[in-house]
Amino acid sequence: MRILVVEDEEAIARGLRFNFEREGYQVDLAASGPAALELYESAQPPVDLVVLDLMLPEMSGYEICRALRRLDLDIPILALTARTLSEDKIQAFDCGVDQYMTKPFSLPELLSRVRNLLDKRRRQIDRRTVRPTEDVVRFSDVAVDFGRFELRHREEVHPLTTREQELLRYFLENDGVVLSRARLQSEVWKDSADISSRSIDNFVMRLRRMIEDDPSSPRHLLSVRGTGYRFVREPAGDTSTTDTG
Ligand code: CA
């Protein structure tokens, strides 16, 4: 499991990393909000838990928490902060943190809370990966491994971010259906205000580079003019795979 620690006090950050790694977790450190969000979005495998300081330069922990919630409603967030006032806690919970601990903290208690949140996360992921599609989905020369966040096209292996994987899964579940950008925004991005039509297009472009033999002339991920996209698992005339299921 992977933990992102957002903390600007280096000594604390290093101490947390040391102790989390000793528990067998993979740890990333970020000293500011923008660095944390960038790490979060590009992390491969994805982050499973965020330990978040609230008093940080650039963006406050509250803002970071809201931004994370726009990216993922389920990612566990534990606030670890010197702020002890009740209104700070309320504000943090309103922003979507799952747990709140004040500094100085007891290490055994922190580790126990982390274990608890990660157990929950693991059950969440298990439910997700056995859900509607198989773990590995194949079409043409592509194999998408949803358990490993990985896409293989011929000999090339591409890591997938959580969002790329969700978008691809949605296309696969809606084989042959014309999907408007508005529908993708509401179904894949859950109406996050941050996503523009252009960024949806950029995601599609990235997927095309991974799955198409010739991304400029796609056979699977087709543009539907003025509307959006249509995914075709088995293009007409493609007899290389026969799936009777
Ligand atoms: Ca701080």
Summarize the model shown.
The chain is α/β, with parallel strands linked by helices and about 240 residues long. About 40% of the residues lie in helices and about 20% in strands. The strands form three sheets. Strands 2-1-3-4-5 form a five-stranded parallel beta sheet, sandwiched between helices.
Structure description:
- α2 packs parallel to α3.
- 42% of the residues lie in helices and 20% in strands.
- The strands form three sheets. Strands 2-1-3-4-5 form a five-stranded parallel β-sheet, sandwiched between helices.
- With 245 residues, the chain is of the alpha/beta class.
- The chain has two domains: 2-128, Response regulator (Rossmann fold), CATH 3.40.50; 136-231, Orthogonal Bundle (Arc Repressor Mutant, subunit A), CATH 1.10.10.
- The protein is elongated.
- It has helices at residues 10-22, 33-42, 61-71, 86-95, 107-130, 162-173, 181-187, 197-211, and strands at residues 2-6, 26-30, 49-52, 77-81, 99-102, 136-139, 142-145, 150-153, 156-159, 178-180, 221-224, 228-231.
- Calcium ion is lined by residues 8-9, 53, 55-56.
- The site of calcium ion has 5 residues, from loops.
